[in-house]
Amino acid sequence: MLNSASARAHTNIALAKYWGKRDEELIIPMNSSLSLTLDHFYTDTQVTFDDSLTADFFELDNRILPATKLTPFLDLVRQKAGIKTFAAVKSFNHVPNQAGLASSASAYAALAAAASKAAGLELTRPELSRLARRGSGSASRSIYGGFVEWQEGHDDLTSVAVPIEEETDWKIGMLAIILNAGVKKIASRAGMQHVVKTSPYYPAWVKESQADIDALKQAIANRDFTQLGEISESNALRMHALNLAARPPFSYFEASTIRAITMIEELRAQGVSCYYTMDAGPNVKVLCQEEDLPTIKAYLAPAFGTENLLFARPGQGVKFLEGD
Ligand code: DP6
Known about the structure:
This protein is an alpha+beta fold. Helix content is 36%, strand content 27%. GO terms for molecular function: ATP binding; diphosphomevalonate decarboxylase activity.
């Protein structure tokens, strides 16, 4: 066989975070999460199942990388499709790699769509979400655009993302402050595993998470930006508090992270409505309304440089690209 398909998926940033697994193999999370898919950061992936290949092949941004990392995921697709053919995967990441901008979310969402189509499967979006989840939990949410909830579920069938508001007319977005675009020190997989095992705050985290999701949904329905921001910021800080309370402790914060957070707080004290969130890396993402963007950028630019301030609006779900 020689079958090819391409797909584009956007990254998403969680407003209520996923941080811990109940099942490591199936990637079933300890709690549901809620995210916003962004338009500016995405991954394009082409998958070709080709009988002439003697092993899987992986190229990222024109660099050949070991395909062994992707093989378990491709095996899942092959198993579903009943084929044994190896695949060539070519990806272009329009996301600063592993800098806490959740590149694994767009990567596995695009891979799930392209690989399943190239293998001859016609998966529904819930099926795509479940497949993407097996690559990386947060990827389950990138199948959909706008606000998305990944419902924790209890098994492979029920742990799936659902759209809350796919095409939102709310003029909000995220301003990513790129403080360090290097590879993160502790991969999210290892970080969350360590926290589940050792952080005494973990049960409290799980207990609070559903209340955060309910409040975020209410904020979205009522277009209540203050509530959206306050809950998101508090949820992110609680996730990072888990890390500080782990044994041994760890943190994704860098000195510049604290500086950025302090400046957001200063802006807020001046009456500008903006809130921050952070993931498994030092970069800070500012949740804001479009009307406040010029003020926020002008305040942050002298400290971090205009080129390190990347704004993204709500983005779309996964889509297939023409040409294959
Ligand atoms: C902090 O989805 O990268 O961004 O499932 O192990 O691949 P794996 O983890 P991943 O973790 C994302 C963690 C987070 C929060 C979030 O996106 O919900």
